[in-house]
Amino acid sequence: MGTPLLPLLVVLQLFTAPSPAAASAHISAVISQSGLDFAKDLLVSHAAETLTPLSVPDIEKSASIPLVGTVRMTASGIVLHGLAVTNSTVAVGDTGVVVAATLARANLTMEWSYSYNAWVVTITDRGNASIQVEGMEVGVSMGMKNQNGSLKLSVMECGCYMKELDITLNGGASWFYQVFIDAFSNHIRTSVENAITKKIMEGALKLDSFLGNLPKKIDLDSVAAMNVTFVNDPIFKRSSVEFDIDGLFIPSDETAVPRGMLLGDIKFALPLGSSSKMLWISLDEDVFNSVSALYFKAGLLQRMVDKIPDQFLLNTASWRFLVPQLYRKYPDDSMLLNISATSPPSVRISVGRIDATVDLDVTVNVLDFGKIVPVACMSVSVAVSGAAAVSGNNLGGRVDLDYFSFTLKWSKVGKLHTVLVQASSCPSSRGSPSEMHISSLLTQK
Ligand SMILES: *[C@@H]1O[C@H](CO)[C@@H](O)[C@H](O)[C@H]1NC(C)=O
Ligand SMILES: *[C@@H]1O[C@H](CO)[C@@H](O)[C@H](O)[C@H]1NC(C)=O
Ligand SMILES: *[C@@H]1O[C@H](CO)[C@@H](O)[C@H](O)[C@H]1NC(C)=O
Ligand SMILES: *[C@@H]1O[C@H](CO)[C@@H](O)[C@H](O)[C@H]1NC(C)=O
Ligand SMILES: *[C@@H]1O[C@H](CO)[C@@H](O)[C@H](O)[C@H]1NC(C)=O
Ligand SMILES: *[C@@H]1O[C@H](CO)[C@@H](O)[C@H](O)[C@H]1NC(C)=O
């Protein structure tokens, strides 16, 4: 779709228990009044642009004029120009939203002609006219339902009203002026009102087909896709609309071309004040757990580490006093760590915080004549807690290390000193909280 995704001021909220009304919704997005105003402004200005020039069907009439006889008149080439929106409002009702706009300074141009028979000759005349439209208002109320996991938009009411038409005829006989106005002004008014209504209905139909064609899943990469199927009908509350989506990660098509994540295209920004918060997004922990399960199943949560900030630690020589057997068997060999999750990392969300635990196997390998030889394995359990935050253009978060434990699973080189474990598997976590991004957990092979 060509619609640009716009910078939105987004607030992220995390919740634990799925709300009872929305059993299968794991993400809900609430568009606040300022978000609705933002969307309305876009929609209205786009509509006003596409509405003009608007051609109105020709009108033909006959009238019987004293002293003149039967006159056939036509108003043709009626075109509406220069619609400008003065102000517009959007309000949320029980079943949908109502958008109303006051328009200013619309004008119409048209051609007129008439003919009548006087004795044996036919008298014709033609010219043009311009019409100023004063006080024009347009209103449309739209409802939205969930149909098969997509949003179905319907126009419940659409109306257009013009207060006054100020018609200026160029040319023509003087008697014709009042005749024309009597015969045509109501017709022109109705025709223009109908043409505008029709155009708005067409626009709504386009919007509906845009909504209907929204994808039901968005591929994150070749492993995971987010199920963005709408669940439940949108909930229209006082000055906000809530949309619920399934939100869980599902396996993506193997052939999928990786695209930005659902939120990847939306610019996150720190909310400037309560009035500017346009969109509230709530996620529950199942969203995180579903993606962690997929990555785990795909075998992506493991990594061979051969570079660390303190590179000298990845050489057996550094350990010759602490783990003498290691150095004796493999003198001056490079070491590699195979860090691999033993179960999907699990995420729990409670008020104001996220807790995550990861169970890992860390296998210590040495590079012995080009061959990787496992020498010991530890099982490591890490629990972190933190809060997600929207900062700049990133969805990030601060993560604090809560709990760290390890046990030696097996070893071919005797007992390992604890320093090895702390230094090598969690180099930056000694005491100080470390910044972390969710994506860094999801390291690719
Ligand atoms: C009618 O609107 C057009 C477009 O805005 C403008 O150029 C033109 O001057 C207007 N005519 C009158 C008579 O106001
Ligand atoms: C636009 O403003 C006028 C005057 O301030 C007001 O009467 C009218 O109701 C407003 N229209 C809308 C749609 O807000
Ligand atoms: C309307 O008619 C006047 C003269 O009758 C002419 O000068 C003017 O160009 C015409 N305008 C249009 C838009 O045809
Ligand atoms: C809902 O989707 C199913 C399968 O995709 C389709 O067969 C059915 O016609 C759809 N129903 C409506 C009302 O669109
Ligand atoms: C996506 O979510 C909808 C609604 O919860 C569900 O009916 C559908 O089966 C899900 N799709 C997949 C592929 O899991
Ligand atoms: C890393 O360890 C895991 C399990 O401990 C094992 O399945 C995987 O094959 C190892 N990776 C490499 C590259 O040795």
From TrEMBL:
GO terms of molecular function: lipid binding
Please report the stretch or stretches of sequence annotated as the Lipid-binding serum glycoprotein N-terminal domain. Answer: 31-254
Report whether Signal shows up as a keyword of the record.
yes
Leader sequence residues: 1-23
Where in this chain does the record put each Lipid-binding serum glycoprotein C-terminal domain? 273-440
Keywords for the protein's UniProt record, in alphabetical order: Signal
Q: Which InterPro entries does this chain map to?
A: Bactericidal_perm-incr_a/b_dom, BPI/LBP_pln, Lipid-bd_serum_glycop_C, Lipid-bd_serum_glycop_N
Which superkingdom does the taxonomy of this entry point to? Eukaryota
Kindly give the Pfam families that the UniProt entry links to this protein.
LBP_BPI_CETP, LBP_BPI_CETP_C
* UniProt-recorded name of the protein: Lipid-binding serum glycoprotein C-terminal domain-containing protein
**Protein source organism:** Setaria italica
- Taxonomic lineage: Eukaryota, Viridiplantae, Streptophyta, Embryophyta, Tracheophyta
